[in-house]
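Hi! If you just cloned this repository, the fastest way to understand the data is to look at a raw example. We've pasted two of them here, unedited. The first protein comes first, obviously.
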Amino acid sequence: MATRVRETERKYEAGVEFVLPDLTAAGPVHTCDGPQRSQLDATYFDTADLRLARAGITLRRRTGGSDAGWHAKLPVGPDVRDEIRFPLGKGKSKVPADLAVLVRAHTLGAPLAPVVRITTERDEWELKAADGTVVALLADDRVTAHPVDDEPRQWRELEVEATDRTVLDAVGSALGARPAKSTSKLARALGKRAKVRVAVALSADPTAAEVVLLYLRAQVDALRANDTGVRLDTEDAVHQFRVACRRLRSALRSFRPLLDRDRVTALRAELKWLGGEASAARDTEVLEAELRAELARVPSVDVLGAVPARITAELGRAAADGRAAVLSAVDGDRYLALLADLDAFLADPPWTPKADRPAALELRKPVRKAWQALADSVDAVGEAAAGTDRDTALHQARKDAKKARYTAEAVAPVFGGKLEAWRDRVKAAQTALGTHQDAVVAKAALRDLGVRAHLDGDNGFTYGLLHARQDARAHAAEAEFAKAWKRLRGSKAPRWLR
């Protein structure tokens, strides 16, 4: 069974002659207990072209120390990585299937084989506060790397791990050692071959292509980053996975004049499929959270019948079906083909001549177009009859608000503060419309639950009460949208957007 541990750590270079200083005055550090000595022996696995290493991921089998086992380390942010741990098992040369699948979005199914063996002589200290609480761990590592196709190399490094960044800063400052250039032992062992791709900063006067490519790459990275969370059922992972799909689809639509239309159309169709496969799981999450919260606000005297149990049973089945659907999608060949197509698209974008134009001029057009589509859909709300037609119109306005927000988000690095402020007001309108749509969905679900309860001979009163409360929520959200829309129309946007 897998366990997940979040690590916040920093590495430092240390020569053979380096002497550890007294750290008892480093921030909250009062005592240093140790050293505890251990011998670590790790074999690292990757594809032949080092796809994992270049993505900043390490996958290893390690013996020795307190956490022997199979580990996958995934980057989360600066100094932060998630380590997924599996038991050692009997196999030594083949990555366990349950671990290999967690990095499948990066390997695309390519074989995993040993690329380097690293042995480490580790001295570890527990850095404790005055009350005896461990505030940091300090490891002094003497490392020997044995790449499968290169000469062995040796070095010494220090590693400080703590959950509090102020402690990391204090200990790091007291050490007086140089920050390491490599983020991991694997990266140092493999050198330039495993250089992690970093986002390229925009030039002073970027072209439209530069801006759009930067945004598309960020969304593909987000899709892959949340793939593991989807597989491990991490909170909010399905939501962020689906958001990445939607942002990619929206960007490909908004910036379609800059790219080959046929390639864009094909990618958008596959992204629509993938987002759709994740929809049921996410929608059930939202619905269950809302119904449980609303039920908790109802006086117990008005909860008649087995309402909590029915909600748990009905939505539990829906959640299981939704999770099965999204897992089936990410485990399938169609998903791998989509990721490969996205990689090929980003490696050699099929630009049209318009993409070479200055971003400050060319990228105004998609924002204006998205804004006009939103304004038109809001006008349609005013013309829609009350009831289902109006709910449908409001839902369309929500989708258009989301597209306008995503488009502004993509080009914000070029247009600065005024556009960002406008985008935030679009988001406020979208949020109100999202609350309205959630209430509409909840009303329909409560009606179905109430009908089934009645047919089973149960009391349907509470479902009707919850339905009425969701109806009130929908009306309140629509009123909030009207206010947000008024603020948006009266806000200071860039002159070219007015």
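Ok, and the second one:
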Amino acid sequence: MDNVLRSSVRAGLLTAGIAAALYPLLLRRWCLTWGATPEEAREALPGDDLLPAPGLIATRAVTVDAPPGAIWPWLVQMGSGRGGAYTYDWIENLFGLDMHSADEILPQFQDLRAGDLLPLGTTGPRMRAEIVDPERALVFRSEDGNWVWAFVLHPEGRATRLISRNRIAAPDSGPLGRLVTMMVMEPGSLVMERKMLLGMKARAERLAHAG
């Protein structure tokens, strides 16, 4: 049994080592630019100037078969105790974020204005709406200035490109902390953000097709 256990540990360490070596070379760019074209990943977006030299940039996107006006209401009602984040609520709520993804437009949360503060749960950072350009761009920045999250709507005929960009300051956490961020946090953010973008896509398309 001891030999089996040692073999399993060695196999696990080898697998982790291979993943750590291959992720930066083969998978990291895909993880950080899921759904975005190379041009979208490179282009300047509203809010970039709010954090000029981030340690991490993730630009992800999805095509929505709906006009910007069918997407915007879902964006402005996002947040804890509001419309949620359209992702895996049970994961969000493990961290006490009080996320409950709405399946309908909530009129009481549609009047978002620049300067409004949105909490992420009771212990998470508060996000300030810095840019509210209806049906074009919505940009939040954390109160500590270390995180800027932008949503941009680019019409393409009858469809819309919904682009999400996260700009995050480099953490002062040493080599191990940076490795954990790269190997755990980055893939984890893709899982959650992919679900969020697809969740907004489904809701906006349903709204548009219902007239």
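That's it. A detail worth noticing about the second one: Confidence is low (pLDDT under 50) at residues 11-20.
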